[in-house]
TrEMBL record:
CC annotations in GO: Cul4-RING E3 ubiquitin ligase complex
Record's protein name: DDB1 and CUL4 associated factor 17
Pfam families: DCAF17 (PF15802)
GO biological process, alphabetically ordered: protein ubiquitination
């Protein structure tokens, strides 16, 4: 007997389920909606209109439909038809100035202790070492954690694991000039405090001591469970942070609990005690990996794992080596050099879409590269996936020109690759939900710079839509400036 006329293809259904697609799961509706939005954005009849513009004396930040002005004191929603102020906190003294901020969003599949935890919130770090969690909708203070006294100045927030583990880093500790002249030595260079977020909980605080890590440490970070230490000589060293925590954690502490630490009695995270430095690294941890690279430029990504460095010599500036993390072997065609002559350097990074590809951006050229296995070997080859070229068809860069009278004029200097009169790439970004690669290219016309935003297929680089930006690029880049474009309903 034959199958029912509308019966699904069982093999195809099982194949889609193996890839994580289910007919009734919430992700199907989201993917369909994002697909429709992408189609609407890129169709020819869709127009964009400038609906709101603002200037600011301080930097402007944007996160998930919220525009932050006045050093995060003013929050404006950009989701409504007309931008509206969500909250505006009163002016504060310099001691209450916000140094850095991160947006927190509710984790999926977890029970949280407070109803407010299910709504977005903003973690901010103040000059006086206070870590505050604010409601993203009204600015109300939901939690307060005091980090430390005057022994260190915390200045930076970053993610170890996005929306899971947060790192608060101090500025580099430096002794006053009088103390240095007196011969007093400063051994502790940085402090790092690590938190689990939503609910906010304290994991531990550690010191980066030059007696353990060396005298030439210039910076430090924690990312994806790796402690990264950078040196002035161009050396980058990687350590397993989880192994460090397990080996050197002296005692765990919970926020809000009483403690007796080194003769001090107080409450964890409360003024004036703050947080105990409970991860004491007493000897050098096992080294996972190290690389010598110019200006500490080091990236890991791809599949299988590779890393990108610039050899630690000034003559190699602008040259990138792509090597296997497994055995440090240079990939075939792994030396990438655009040989461009420009004021602004080209840049390279692993594609944020987790495809393992690499994006290399120059003044007039964007290369999307991918790793490909070389047959019958363990080596990988770097091949071009696609290329995006700037529109320079009408630009003639000849060293010899002939005037109308027939006189031959020779130019003494050739144009730079990023000459302002030529179209030059300034921004390359990836929109993950719509799977679009966006580029901004700029050409200076007279005294102004004109720019256009191009939306491209992320898989093949095909141009789907070009949107001219009406504002002068010189204005956009010289002062804090924010312009909001809204999608107009396309005519049928």
């Amino acid at each position: 007997c034959g199958a029912a006329p509308r019966a699904p293809n069982v093999c195809r259904l099982l194949g889609r389920r193996a890839c994580g697609f289910y007919a009734r799961d919430a992700g199907v509706a989201l993917r369909n909606n994002m697909g429709l939005l992408r189609t609407i954005l890129c169709q020819e009849s869709t127009k964009f209109k400038n609906v709101w513009t603002t200037h600011s004396a301080s930097p402007i930040a944007y996160e998930r439909g919220r525009i932050y002005l006045d050093n995060y004191r003013c929050c404006i929603s950009s989701i409504a038809q007309e931008p509206r102020i969500l909250y505006q906190k009163p002016k504060c003294s310099k001691s209450e100035k916000i140094e850095d901020a991160l947006l927190l969003e509710c984790p999926l599949g977890e029970m949280l202790p407070n109803p407010s935890d299910y709504k977005p919130s903003l973690i901010v770090l103040t000059v006086q070492n206070w870590l505050l969690r604010l409601s993203a909708d009204c600015g109300e203070i939901l939690e307060k954690v005091y980090l430390a006294g005057s022994c260190c100045k915390f200045r930076y927030l970053s993610w170890d694991a996005p929306q899971e583990v947060m790192v608060v880093k101090s500025a580099q500790n430096k002794l006053p000039a009088e103390a240095r002249q007196a011969g007093i030595q400063q051994s502790v260079l940085f402090h790092l405090a690590v938190f689990q977020v939503l609910p906010l909980s304290f994991i531990g605080m550690l010191e980066i001591n030059k007696k353990i890590f060396g005298n030439n440490v210039t910076d430090v970070a924690i990312s994806n469970g790796i402690l990264i230490v950078m040196y002035s000589v161009g050396l980058v060293r990687l350590y397993n942070f989880q192994a460090i925590t397990e080996k050197f954690m002296e005692q765990p502490f919970d926020l809000g609990c009483e403690f007796n630490w080194n003769g001090q009695v107080g409450i964890v995270g409360k003024y004036p005690f703050g947080l105990p430095c409970n991860i004491k690294i007493t000897d050098t941890p096992p080294l996972l990996f190290e690389a010598s690279t110019l200006e500490n430029a080091f990236q890991i990504g791809g599949f299988p794992w590779h890393y990108i460095i610039t050899p630690n010599k000034k003559k190699h500036r602008g040259v990138f080596y792509i090597c296997s993390l497994k055995d440090n072997a240079l990939a075939k065609n792994g030396i990438q050099d655009m040989k461009c002559c420009s004021l602004e350097p080209d840049w390279i990074y692993f594609h944020p879409d987790m495809s393992g590809r690499i994006i290399h951006v120059g003044p007039n050229l964007i290369k999307v590269l991918k790793l490909k296995e070389v047959e019958n070997t363990d080596q990988n080859e770097i091949v071009e996936d696609f290329i995006i070229m700037a529109n320079r068809e009408n630009c003639v860069n000849s060293s010899v020109t002939v005037t109308s009278s027939g006189r031959v004029v020779k130019k003494r200097l050739n144009l730079l690759d990023d000459d302002p009169e030529q179209e030059t790439f300034k921004i390359v970004d990836y929109e993950d939900e719509l799977d679009l690669l966006s580029t901004v290219a700029v050409t200076e016309i007279g005294a102004d710079g004109r720019a256009h935003l191009d939306l491209r297929c992320n898989e093949h680089g095909i141009l789907l839509k070009s949107i001219p930006l009406l504002e002068s690029w010189d204005v956009v880049r010289s002062i804090p400036f924010f312009c909001l474009y809204k999608l107009l309903n396309p005519r049928k």
